[in-house]
Amino acid sequence: MDVFVCAGCGAELTVPLTRVPLPVEAHLSYGHQPMPPLMAPGTYAVDPEPSGPPFRPWEEVPEAETTARGLFVPVWPLSFGARNRIVVAPGDVRGTRLIPEHSGDSCLGMCVGELPSMACAGCGALVASRVDDCGLWQAVWIEPDTVRRVPTGLPAPAREFVPLPPIDPSGGWSHVWEAATGAALARIVAASGGVRPVLPDGLLTEVFGPVLDRLLPAGPAARTVGLAGPGLPGDGADIVLVPYGPETGGSWQPVGGALPVPLADGVWAYLALPGETSPLPSSGTLPEGVLRDDYPLPDHPWHVFRPDHGAYRETLARIPAVREPWLRALAGRGFSAS
Known about the structure:
The chain has six helices and 14 strands.
């Protein structure tokens, strides 16, 4: 576990934190609604890509520069902010004071502006920006050059695969699910070879099937999609959905030649290890392995589930194969197209 301290005066600015992969949904926005924290308590992530202002139009940036950044189709807006910003939950920050006037062009809260909106309480150095505006995940983004990471020597908590339901407490589709499956969809499409892959019966078909039917034609030599991970070998599938690696976002590596497609732990666990998901646990009066049949009906969102198109396109833009004509044509195509 690590603590971040002010590079100027050495004051501690966070509680001890464990590094985890950057959530796919970190930079996605969601209309006018208030959002929960992006990061789980006690965790932090590092964004290796430039983020925040200043921004430049794609058309003004030379192709050699965008290619060097790993971008192969247009992305809007194109950030030229700092790389390696550190994101933490607001409740994990210590020893800072807020500077509201440094917020960017926000609505009902704060967002990243030209200057960081949080200062070290010890020396006054501008160290981070608070984000809590409507439609934006609540987070604190720490400027990488203003802090030092200090290992604490404390062991990281054991990794747990806790299933995350696809419906959030408000009764709508989980934005984490939408973003995670949008990014995974891009990798599945890129690995498909232009032919609709074969999905197993069950939840994977419900999640990805309708969109893949719209994007890709059926044909011979279709590749198969499955699930793999700790305790799951993949059953010979060509493309396997797997959990992320523990820190930087690489994927769990399957045995054999299957192509891994990473998913957030909670989404992967729900797909791979569904088990008993009812909010009403048995009191112990039923035999082992027998489920109750008197649960209330689950929430039903007002529209069908659809992977997030922004996450899909952002991920596809960073896959080198997107330069192939068939895949480039799909990069700007909406899911509702026939």
